[in-house]
Amino acid sequence: MKVLAIDTSNHPMSVALVEDDQLLATTTLNMVRNHSIYLMPTIDRLFNLVKWQPADIDRIVVAQGPGSYTGIRIAVTTAKVLADTLNVELVGVSSLEVVARNVLPTTTAIIVPFFDARRGNVFAGAYQWKDGQLVNRIEDQHLGMATLLDQLAAVDQPVVLVGHLTKRIEDQFESLPDNVTLAPRAYGIPSTYQLALAGENRPAVKEIDPFVPHYLRITEAEANWQKLHPGETRQNYVREV
Amino acid sequence: MAERTLILAFETSCDETSVAVIENGTKILSNVVATQIDSHQRFGGVVPEVASRHHIEWITRCIDQALDEAQVDYDDIAAVAITYGPGLVGSLLVGVTAAKVIAWAHHLPLIPVNHMAGHLYAARYVGEFKYPQMALLVSGGHTELVYMPKEHEYEIIGETRDDAAGEAYDKIGRVLGVNYPAGKTIDQWAAQGEDTFHFPRAMEKEANYDFSFSGLKSAFINTVHNADQRGETLNKYDLAASFQQSVVDVLAEKTMRALDRYPVKQLILAGGVAANQGLRKRLDHDMAKYHPEVSMLQAPLKLCGDNAAMIGAAGYVNYRHGDRAGMDLNAVPGLMFKRMEVE
After folding, report:
1. How far is A129 from chain B (nearest CA, A)?
2. Domain extent at residue B333
3. How far apart are the C-alpha atoms of B296 and B80, rounded to whole Å?
4. What pLDDT score does B342 carry?
5. With an 8 Å Cβ cutoff, is A115 touching chain B?
6. What is residue A203's predicted lDDT score, i.e. its pLDDT?
7. Do the domain assignments include residue B245?
8. Which of B79, B84, B146, B292 is the most exposed place for a label (fewest CB within 10 A)?
């Protein structure tokens, strides 16, 4: 199976081409957050290197969020339009899970990947290796860094945090709880090889049209509107004219 | 059989997701438009993050439906055209990303299109273009006079210094309790009222081709608020008629003066506000009276708002002129035609 894996959820951008579990080519950029400029040229270059045609791929695996709204939209738009137009399989994987997979499967600790979500908040989830499988323990969510650490302090197990500790997040706490350690920074860089492997054996989405990023937050405008108009939210606000 | 060149065109610059298939820049084989108006009406205007989220929900449906309705396949398509600016960056990015993917996946050339050139080319579905040409482009985000010495060359000779005309309609609409987009209702009310308030005509007599609508907007809002404080209710039809008369006077007079200064063969009226009946009638009248030697094309009503058919028409011209974008094409929210300094 030929797999294209894409992750542009945060500052790093990563693309991998994987065939039958083998990594053929990958590129990760971590210079500037302008994934719109670099993503397609990177995909094009990797396809040329391995001599694939676009139509050769069987499956696209994309980091579906959470993360930067613009970032996850670029990866998901690319993945869903490509899957739709080439009629190939599409799989979405949590962007947090991709980072959690950087931690060795022999680790028994709870693995907590996190991304800066601004204003002292993070996107975070909890994962754990069990019999060689990475299992989700607490689903991905948006919460304050201080709240997250309070919750982790109450866990009666070792916890390893994986992610880039920005100044903004570091300002939210004095010190980490005793049972919590921070993985070295390299572990926070997503690997699209890991992403491809994670998505290789999962069921593909049945319908591509409704496939959207996992933002984990509704927009502020909608949250305010819902407060003023309880129970009025409709299923669909877009119509053809 | 004459060769046919099909363009697959994308437009996502604001709150419409649209994909079209256009033959030879003049024939619409399909033009799918998914509008988000119902969503943004909740907020009284377009919320950029909400708009971007809707675009991604609709993009593949629009692509597939446009091809279906046109009864064509990718093998029939010559090029992919895409609006890359001006507009909302998050909205533009969904279309730019999608268009790049389609072009890459099917080895098709990618044609970048300026959204304002797209608006102008909505008029191409009415008749042939003649040069030199002048265009009055009026929409929710833009108000500009564009001079085209020949095909594929655009020079701004005048533009708004503050609010766009359509923006002013939405803002005064809010004061009258008319939801966004307010233009159509105000236009209908205006037809039933009289210009009794004589709002200011900004920069009308100045020796340039620029516009300003914020003074008019403030005068309007002050008039309504002062009446409110006195416990009076003003006639909404007369208010609408007075506002619209001021807007139309300024647009029409500046356009006539631009035509005095720049002899052209044709005037184009396009953009969302080009659907305004008051403006269309006034230009019909003024052109017959002052510039009978200049022909006029008004964009068809159903193509005044944002749509991909107009992008396909403009994209076809760019295609013939050799415009090509690479896979590194990015959204340019502030994209503008060059400004020509006029004396």
Report:
1. 34
2. 6-120+304-339
3. 30
4. 66
5. no
6. 97
7. yes
8. B292
Q: Summarize the confidence of residues A188-203 as an average pLDDT.
A: 96
Q: Where are the domains of chain A?
A: 2-95+190-218, 103-188
The answer to whether the Cβ–Cβ distance between A238 and B64 falls below 8 Å is: no
Instruction: Say whether A103-188 and A2-95+190-218 share the same fold.
Output: yes
Q: Does a structural domain hold residue B1?
A: no
Position A121 scores a pLDDT of: 96
Q: State residue B340's pLDDT score.
A: 85
Partner B, chain A 209-228, Cβ-Cβ below 8 Å: 209-210, 212-213, 215, 219-222, 225
pTM of the model: 0.96
Q: Which site among A33, A39, A85 would you substitute to test the B interface, given the most B Cβ atoms closer than 10 Å to its Cβ?
A: A85
Q: Could you confirm whether domain A103-188 is CATH 3.30.420.40?
A: yes
Any CB–CB contact under 8 A between A117 and chain B?
no
As a whole number of angstroms, the distance between CA B337 and CA A85 comes to: 33
Sign of CA dihedral A31, A33, A37, A43: positive
Quick check: B50 and A222 CB within 8 A?
yes
Which residues, listed in sequence order, are joined to residue B27 by a DSSP beta bridge? B23
For residues A57 and A63, what is the distance between their CA atoms, to the nearest angstrom?
A: 17
Count the domains in chain B: 2
B202 and B259 fall within a common domain: yes
B101 CB neighbours in chain A (<8 A) are 40, 77-78, 81-82, 85
Assign residue B90 the CATH number of its domain. Answer: 3.30.420.40
Mean pLDDT for A18-24 is: 97
Q: Does B233 lie in the same domain as B257? A: yes
Specify whether B82 is located in the same domain as B174.
Answer: no
- CATH code reported for the domain at A2-95+190-218: 3.30.420.40
Residues of B near A (CB-CB distance < 8 A)? 17, 32-36, 38-39, 42-43, 47, 49-50, 52-54, 56-61, 63-64, 74, 89-90, 93-94, 96-98, 100-102, 104-106, 326-328, 330-331
**Percent of chain A surpassing pLDDT 70:** 100
Query: B244 with B190: CB under 8 angstroms?
Result: yes
Whole-complex ipTM: 0.96
pLDDT-derived band at B205, boundaries 50, 70, 90: confident
pLDDT, tens only, B30-84: 999 999 999 999 999 999 999 999 999 999 999 999 999 999 999 999 999 999 9
Percent of chain B with pLDDT over 70: 99
Query: At B2, is the pLDDT very low, low, confident or very high (cuts 50, 70, 90)?
Result: low
Question: What are residue B77's phi and psi, to 5 degrees?
Answer: -85, 135
